TrEMBL record:
This is ABC transporter domain-containing protein. The keyword Amino-acid biosynthesis does not apply. SUPFAM superfamilies: P-loop containing nucleoside triphosphate hydrolases. It holds the Pfam family ABC_tran. Signal peptide: none annotated. Residues 8-241, 257-496 form the ABC transporter domain. InterPro entries: AAA+_ATPase, ABC_carbohydrate_import_ATPase, ABC_transporter-like_ATP-bd, ABC_transporter-like_CS, P-loop_NTPase. One of its GO terms (molecular function) is ATP binding. The lineage of its organism: Bacteria, Pseudomonadati, Spirochaetota, Spirochaetia, Spirochaetales. Keywords: ATP-binding, Nucleotide-binding. The keyword Protein biosynthesis does not apply.
Length: 502
């Protein structure tokens, strides 16, 4: 009998990739109801994204069934299914050549309604999300947080019965996340079913009514959110509590990176007269809202743009590379914030991305053999707990597994200067702690680590010093013994500042 209240049920879902070599789902299931917020939790590679893509009709399961209102989804008209479910992926993308307004109008298919009426709907939903969309900006110029916001508005314009969001808060500031969650609670109260997919246990437990826990492709628990503590959820998912990384005092050595009076103005963001130095054997964090200068500084450090003024020097006064290909030649390890665009070639096999930095060491007479490449990749995958075959396409990796691949590739070859941009994005509790320990080990071996991160918790976990960027300038500095979540948050929002720590 169909469920009168409206529901989506996935039962005993199995899914394999790479000709059956990679098992993504192994009997997974979930029960979504209208009028509630449901959290789907699991460690990286547990099958979360694959399961929701099956529910949204974007991936066909190898076996199992999906029921909509008690009727197999296969019997429903395809357009009816897509009209009932709106899915926002972990890494949403806009059409590069269209403005945000054009993109939203295209998604609305506004035949029979005037442009003023369509614009009014866009404005009302944006106001509910409490965010100003850059309507006149083309898709390739929109920052990550506003891309996600645009996709949320686009989904809600269709008035779906169910809204699925995969890691929606990854690129949001704390205030933007709070506003999003308030809207989701309103939508659930109005009768919409919400499924939020995340590795952020604390965040989802506070928001959701019910939880489904996935591990290694299996649904291992479905429960009321209030019935399990954070520690219990963590133990069920990963067999461990959320323990902090063990941080010992740093022993800074000589300067390995010095930034002097650096300025750059662009349409997206700017920095103004930034100066700081990084020493070997320490972790220096620059933190703030990305549009307040972090993204601009990252583009200068990855040599995709050049500063308007100022200079960057490495150890011994050597000028910092001004061309992307020379960064690796200079022995600099870099993990970009946008892993899809600049972190990996998604259309190539995993082993091509894994071995790109060690070709010279592994090759003979300039030729890198397939066996050596595959053997090296297997070791890296095992070392970093990445569930993949060396010859499978990189695009098949989950977001967390892709981040592990990029981090592992860069960290294994690092020695001197290491630049990490949002290194814990997309990682679950266990993966994040493992990465933190590896970063601390690098520091203790004498590497100088520059951490660009908008996540305060990440900074508090491992940084020795912190500088806050606000409105393009360094407005506050903190030594580790001065770290205070509230004060740092206020500095990131421009409420207060301090001169210590620089």
């Amino acid at each position: 009998m169909p469920d009168s209240g409206g529901s989506i049920r996935a039962r005993n879902i199995h899914k394999y990739f790479n000709h059956g070599e990679v098992k993504a789902l192994d009997g997974a299931g979930i029960n979504l109801r209208r009028g509630e917020i449901h959290g789907l939790l699991g460690e990286n590679g547990s099958g979360k994204t694959t399961l929701v893509r099956c529910i949204a009709g974007m991936t066909r399961p190898d076996s199992g069934e999906i029921l909509m209102d008690g009727i197999p989804a296969a019997r429903h008209n395809r357009s009816k299914v897509s009209g009932k479910i709106a899915y926002i992926p972990q890494h949403p993308r806009l059409v590069p050549s269209l403005t945000v307004q054009e993109f939203l109008h295209l998604g609305m298919n506004p035949a029979g309604q005037g442009r003023d009426e369509a614009a009014g709907k866009i404005r009302r939903i944006s106001e509910r999300l409490r965010i100003d969309l850059p309507l006149a900006t083309r898709g390739n110029r929109v920052p990550a947080n506003l891309v996600t916001a645009t996709m949320i508005v686009e989904a809600l314009l269709k008035a779906p019965d169910f809204l699925i969001l995969d890691e929606p808060s990854t690129s949001f500031t704390p205030l933007e996340t709070e506003n999003l969650f308030s809207l989701l609670q309103e939508l659930a109260a109005e009768g919409m079913g919400i499924l939020i997919v995340s590795h952020k246990i604390r965040e989802v437990r506070q928001l959701a009514h019910r939880l489904t826990l996935l591990r290694k492709g299996k649904s291992i628990a479905e429960t009321e959110a209030r019935d399990l503590s954070l520690e219990e959820i963590s133990r069920i998912l990963m067999g461990t509590g959320d323990r902090a990384a063990e941080l010992t005092p740093s022993s800074p050595g000589g300067i390995c990176l010095e930034v002097r009076n650096l300025s750059k103005r662009s349409r997206e963001s700017f920095i103004r007269n930034i100066s700081f130095s990084l020493r070997r054997g320490e972790i220096l964090a620059l933190s703030g809202i990305r549009e307040n200068g972090l993204d601009c500084l990252e583009r200068i450090l990855n040599a995709s743009v050049q500063p308007d003024s100022g200079e960057i020097l490495m150890a011994g006064g050597t000028p910092y590379p001004r061309e992307p290909e020379r960064i690796k030649m200079a022995g600099i390890a870099m993990v970009p914030s946008d892993r899809l665009e600049s972190g990996a070639a998604l259309g190539l096999p995993v082993m091509e991305n894994a071995a790109v930095l060690v070709r010279k060491e592994l090759s003979r007479y300039g030729i890198l053999g397939e066996k050596k490449k595959e053997s090296y990749t297997r070791e890296l995958l095992s070392e970093y707990g990445i569930s993949a075959h060396p010859r499978s396409l990189t695009s098949a990796l989950s977001g967390g597994m892709l981040q592990r691949l990029i981090l592992g590739r860069e960290i294994l070859s690092a020695s001197g200067l290491v630049i990490l941009c949002e290194p814990a994005w997309g990682l679950d509790v266990k993966g994040r702690l493992e990465v933190y320990q590896r970063i601390l080990s690098l520091r203790d071996r004498g590497a100088g680590i520059l951490l660009l991160a908008s996540d305060i918790d990440e900074v508090l976990e491992i940084a020795d010093r912190l500088l806050v960027l606000y409105n393009g300038e360094i407005t506050a500095g903190f030594q580790r013994d001065q770290f205070d979540h509230g004060r740092i948050g206020e500095a990131m929002l421009g409420i207060c500042g301090t001169g210590d720590g620089k």
